[in-house]
């Protein structure tokens, strides 16, 4: 399905796992890998059995360490090549940010450059205690597009966003937590179990409710008057009109776990 041995995908228990599998380069990402990531996310979106998406990196030493600099000459050396590369990464970032399904970045080790940008596109970021973060664009002379900066500003605010970019320094997991860059910091050896438990919890909840909240939060971030209030109202009404709403109330009264179907 992936079309690249450096991108792995699997599905289990309502969770779609997308793994960047280039550990010898700290999961640095090439064009081929970005293209495979787009295919994986499209497959997860189309599969009703997948209710939550988890993104992680192989090897335990890095989530994603950014673009594969060894590929710069072949993939990002001219104006047209740079534009093509940016267009492809934007497709993946947008697919994550706009996914109707909840997304979690499970972060071990280095999360640098494009890795931080990728993590910011997810709904939640959960990291190990030795994780580190940074955007070294200012050390490489790279420009950074509006969409990526806007997502970071929405997450940590303008002052921290400027500090991250201006200094181009690495930040510890605790510094990232203080800035609001990550939701949770857990011991390294507990990270996978913690994320798995979180993902299973979300997957077991009502998909229509979870999906509506994701959409409505996105609309709430827009300027007043710009939000699609009609779409938000329609999604709320769909929840109350659903079989899952009846199942949720029935399960509560019967004191049993609900079995939601997303309809």
Question: Which structural traits does this protein have?
Answer:
263 residues, alpha/beta, 2-enoyl-CoA Hydratase, Chain A, domain 1, 6-stranded mixed beta sheet, 4-stranded mixed beta sheet, globular
CATH architecture of the largest domain: Alpha-Beta Complex
Question: Globular, elongated, flat, extended or rod-shaped: what is the shape?
Answer: globular
- End-to-end separation in angstroms reads 28 Å
**Number of E-type strands:** 10
- The strand line-up of the biggest sheet is 1-2-3-5-7-10
CATH topology name of the largest domain, in short, is 2-enoyl-CoA Hydratase, Chain A, domain 1
**Spans with pLDDT under 50 lasting ≥5 residues?**
none
Based on the structure, what is the oligomeric state of the protein chains?
A: single chain
Give the % helix.
Answer: 40-55%
**How large, in whole angstroms, is the Cα Rg?**
19 Å
For the residues shown, what is the average pLDDT?
91
The figure for the number of domains is 2
CATH domain class name of the largest domain: Alpha Beta
Number of helices: 12
The assigned structural class equals alpha/beta
Main β sheet profile: 6 strands, mixed
Beta-strand residue percentage: 15-25%
Secondary-structure element series? EEHEEHHEEHEEHHHEHEHHHH
Any idea what the CATH superfamily of the largest domain is called? 2-enoyl-CoA Hydratase, Chain A, domain 1
EC number: 4.2.1.17
Family: Belongs to the enoyl-CoA hydratase/isomerase family.
Keywords: Lyase
GO molecular function, one term: enoyl-CoA hydratase activity
């Amino acid at each position: 399905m992936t079309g690249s041995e450096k991108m792995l995908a699997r599905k289990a228990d309502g969770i779609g796992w997308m793994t960047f599998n280039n550990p010898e380069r700290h999961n640095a990402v090439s064009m081929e890998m970005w293209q495979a990531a787009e295919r994986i996310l499209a497959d997860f979106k189309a599969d009703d059995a997948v209710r939550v998406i988890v993104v992680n990196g192989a090897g335990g030493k890095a989530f994603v360490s950014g673009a594969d600099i060894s590929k710069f000459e072949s993939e990002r050396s001219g104006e047209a090549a740079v534009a093509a590369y940016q267009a492809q990464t934007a497709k993946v970032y947008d697919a994550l940010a706009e996914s109707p399904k909840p997304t979690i970045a499970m972060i071990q080790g280095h999360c640098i450059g494009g890795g931080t940008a990728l993590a910011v596109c997810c709904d939640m970021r959960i990291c190990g205690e030795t994780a580190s973060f940074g955007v070294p664009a200012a050390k490489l002379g790279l420009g950074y597009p509006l969409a990526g900066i806007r997502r970071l500003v929405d997450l940590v605010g303008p002052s921290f966003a400027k500090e991250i970019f201006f200094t181009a320094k690495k930040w510890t997991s605790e510094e990232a937590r203080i800035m609001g860059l990550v939701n949770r910091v857990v011991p390294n050896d507990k990270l996978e179990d913690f994320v798995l438990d979180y993902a299973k919890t979300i997957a077991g909840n009502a998909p229509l409710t979870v999906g509506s909240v994701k959409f409505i939060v996105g609309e709430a971030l827009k300027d007043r008057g710009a939000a699609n209030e009609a779409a938000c109202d329609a999604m709320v009404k769909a929840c109350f009109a659903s079989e899952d709403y009846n199942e949720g109330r029935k399960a509560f009264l019967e004191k049993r776990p609900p079995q939601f179907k997303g309809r």
